[in-house]
C-alpha cells in the first residue's frame, strides 16, 4: 500500500453528514466515497457518521461525528486552501461558506493575489479562497 495523507474533519455536534453534504454541493467534482454509521448499542448517536470519506475536486477527505466530547474544535491555524478559476467562483464559495460562519479576511486584494477571502464556515472549518 502506498502511503497517503488525508485531511480528517472531526465533528462533535452530530453535524458531520450535514457538513459533508454542504461541501459536496459547493464543488462540481465532488462525491461520497464511503459512509459508515453508528448502529444500535455503539458509542455514537445511532445513524450519525462513524466514518465517511468524500472527495472535493479530486482531493479525498474523511469526517466523523466523535462519540467523545473534546475540549477542542476546529481552528483557523489549519485551513483548507481553494484555488479558484474565476472571480465568480471565488465569490460564490465565499458567500456560501460565510452563511452562518465568520469572516476572517473579507474578500479583497491583499497584494499576494488578485482576490482573496478567508472564512470559518458554520461548522467551524476554516477556508482560504484565492484567485491567483
UniProtKB/TrEMBL annotation:
CDD domains attached to this UniProt entry: PhnB_like (cd06588)
Domain of life: Bacteria
InterPro entries (alphabetical): 3_dmu_93_MTrfase (IPR009725), Glyas_Bleomycin-R_OHBP_Dase (IPR029068), PhnB-like (IPR028973)
Ranges where the PhnB-like domain occurs: 3-129
Pfam families the UniProt entry points to: 3-dmu-9_3-mt
SUPFAM superfamilies: Glyoxalase/Bleomycin resistance protein/Dihydroxybiphenyl dioxygenase
Protein's name in the database: VOC family protein
Organism encoding this protein: Nonomuraea zeae
Taxon lineage: Bacteria, Bacillati, Actinomycetota, Actinomycetes, Streptosporangiales
